[in-house]
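ok so for the tutorial part 2 we go from a plain amino acid sequence to predicted structure tokens. step 1 is just haveing the sequence, like this:
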Amino acid sequence: MTLELRVLSGSRAGARETFDKPIVAVGRHAMSDLRFDPQADLDVSTRHAEFRDAGGIWTIADQSSTNGTFVNGERITGERRLDDGDVVSFGANGPRVEVRGVGTAAPATSFQPEMEPSASAPSAKPRMDTSARVAVAVKEQTKSMRRGFMLGGGALIAAGAVAFFFWQRAASARESEMAAIIAHSESMLAALEKKMDAPRPGDTAYTAALKDTLAARKRDLDAVRGQIAAGTATKGAVSELSKKLERTAEMQRALGQMDVTRVVEANDAAVAMVASDFDGKVIAGTAFGITRGGMLVTNRHGVRGESGKPAGKVVVIFANTKEWLPARIVRVSENEDDDLALIQIEVAGNYPVVSGVSRTGGLARVGAPVASIGYPGATDTPMEGTGMNITARTTSTPGTVSKRLDNVIQIDSYAGHGSSGSPLFDSAGNVVGVIYGGARESGGRIVYAVPAQRLAAFLGADGGSILR
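step 2 — the prediction. this is what the tokens look like for a chain of 468 residues:
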């Protein structure tokens, strides 16, 4: 039975879509039948709900979504039958969809032609005795019972045939869905593999991380393909593969959706390597310029030890230069969550600054592309020269925002020793975070940054015209 959906609100308001399939998946996933914008419709889960055709009666089933599914303003649990004109909301404040063309049709009314009265009434039949009347009644009753059994048996056979038909149809739909996911996966992995073949000077660690991820997804794909061939594949296994591929696809989109080259060209010169001396132990990190007079932002832990003692000596070297410049600590954040510090170059000059620092980090939404510029690996990465006698060269690393909280931005990217203090840029080229660490078990692939609004609050008047 055909299902028509009219989108009433959200990024796709005004759109109409018609479906002629037993299951219509709704969500932000690329394989959803009714797909909402992954960046604009954030109330919608990746796999939010399913419209289901149950023998001509449509229902809606929530798929353990984060914000719930509502029918006519009432949140549903499990599966809910739909009638023509019902309004389904994906999240209390999410997109609303009007359902058309569903429900049970009114039963047809049978009209019999009115009979003309007969000119002469038929003669009455002879009256039967009691025994005869009882025999006839018994015969009629058993005849009705036999007819009922026959009809009931026929109905059961018909119901079985209908159930088998819809089971086959559903199985075919699942097989088609699996095949579509596999085909999409192969195409997506081929595109990502092609991107990985392109040279990325200085980004060897990030490239290696992506290649490891790519190899793992290919193994997952081969395993599911083997299960399908053996007839043992389950929808759960294919869905799990799809979830993993979605994260890999986000990394792919980050490579294609953001003009990293433009962002680097605009900001590279303002990114400096920092070397802090703690009683003979030198710690390297990254900083970035925010004033022409030589004030830079970096991490607190890069210039102050765990005991709270400041570094005895701090020097910086800007990208593409050979000169180390002495600097002093201006102040550090006293908020435990904000790993931030300001340092000031002690040699007068006109120094490069980043394009801007976002006040709110509005473009750094979950799923959005970002890029960091810094010195992961410090002087251990390829440089011109050795030791402290080098020409500093930055590493640019794209990624995607995977989680956003008030006190942290989580990124699927790469960072390592020396990345601390690296500026994180949005697609407009403004700083939306300052990298300070990552999850140890991730091998540098899950990265944490101080969010833009906290950086802006920390800078205050020192931010000057750099705040956007």
